[in-house]
Amino acid sequence: MNNLAAELSKEQTTLLTTMAQQYLMEGTWPVWYFTVATLDRHDLDAEELIRSLPRVGSTGHVGPSYGLTSHFGFHIADDDRPALTIAACLHLPELRPYMSDPFLRVLHTLIVMQRSAPVSTQEAAKPRFTNADIERELPELPKGFTRRLPGILALEPSTSGGSSGTTAEGTWWRELHREIRRYREAKILMDYVRTTARLITAQAGATLPTPALPEPVPLPTPGPYVDEALITDLEDKDTVFRVDKLLALVRELNANHADQHPYACQMLLRAILDHVPPAFGQSTFQGVFANVSWGRTDKAYVKKLADFRNGADDVLHRQISAHPSRIDMHDLPPRTFVNALLQGVLVHLAAVPEPQGS
């Protein structure tokens, strides 16, 4: 059996990262043609890489299997949208707050619902849940996650299968099946992947090693929110601007992110967005987005950061009330966006003029 947690090659990680970054920006998985064309620029074969990813269960096209993506082993059409599974989050720490962490909260909420659902003595009616149930039980889920949830549920063996549909009011619903109870001890990502691998392997009729995944298998350690090498480059930049405040802000942002302080992170990131426009020859961050020449991907990142200012306003200016706050670490933009902005700052900082010869 392949080990879903085994370290991936740099090329395999590039494939997963390319797909995940677009998902984080747009909320949908990119068409396969985008991934193929992007990896072509790095002289990488996307189809060969997606087939090389670890997978458990059936090795053919028939029978249960589970891997890091929804597609494997055969040709993918240009307009298909291969998705990453929850297991892929083992290798992409930046994806966990927006995918695996909220999914595990939903999973254990569904387990409670299934175990406590009333049972009829007169009809074999399986319990159902709706998006409204999820939003009521878990109001702290990341923005937009409930909309993306049906696609995630359909890919995961723990929640796939059974009937599903939508109502005239636009609410979606799914049946709850008994097998979901097998995941009641899978509280963290590694346990979830290990449980899925064990169940899929058994269903496929394969011999199950003990343990299902080698132990110990440490999760990849997420890096700092702002890349340390980028901070060093900013510190070493020979520029007419004084960058002492910027360096202090990004270092404090990293420290508070490591300590999981969401309010401090929101305020520090807002301060950075307000601090850097002069480096681009602009007076506001809206000008940085609208008037500075960016590549297509970086422009999308900067636009998302411009939209983030609304969340920072909530943290800074919403007054105390009878309602609880719903701000947490999941509300911060992905580190990729922030690093792209600061790389732009590094490039645009005006250099100290060369001394004129006599």
Characterization of this structure:
With 358 residues, the chain is mainly alpha-helical. 46% of the residues lie in helices and 4% in strands. The protein contains 13 helices and five strands. The chain has helices at 10-26, 32-40, 46-52, 100-116, 131-137, 145-155, 189-203, 228-236, 244-258, 262-275, 285-291, 296-317, 335-348, and strands spanning 55-57, 65-67, 128-130, 164-166, 172-175. Strands 3-5-4 form a three-stranded antiparallel sheet. A hairpin with a 7-residue loop joins strand 1 (55-57) and strand 2 (65-67). Helix 9 (244-258) packs antiparallel against helix 10 (262-275). It is globular. Mean pLDDT is 87; it is low at 206-211.
Give the distance, in angstroms, between the N- and C-terminal Cα atoms. 73 Å
Q: Uncertain runs with pLDDT below 50, 5 residues or more?
A: 206-211
The order of strands across the largest sheet is 3-5-4
- Mean pLDDT across every amino acid position: 87
Q: Major beta sheet, specifics?
A: 3 strands, antiparallel
Protein structure class: mainly alpha
Shape, per Cα inertia axes: globular
- Portion of residues in helices? 40-55%
Beta percentage is under 5%
Helical run tally = 13
As a whole number of angstroms, the C-alpha radius of gyration is 23 Å
Work out the number of β strands. Answer: 5
Reading the helices and strands in chain order gives HHHEEHEHHEEHHHHHHH
Which characteristics define this entry?
358 residues, mainly alpha, 13 helices, two-stranded antiparallel sheet
How are the elements arranged and paired?
Layout: H1 10-26, H2 32-40, H3 46-52, E1 55-57, E2 65-67, H4 100-116, E3 128-130, H5 131-137, H6 145-155, E4 164-166, E5 172-175, H7 189-203, H8 228-236, H9 244-258, H10 262-275, H11 285-291, H12 296-317, H13 335-348
Antiparallel strand pairs: 1-2, 3-5, 4-5
Helix pairs in contact: 9-10, 10-12, 11-12, 12-13
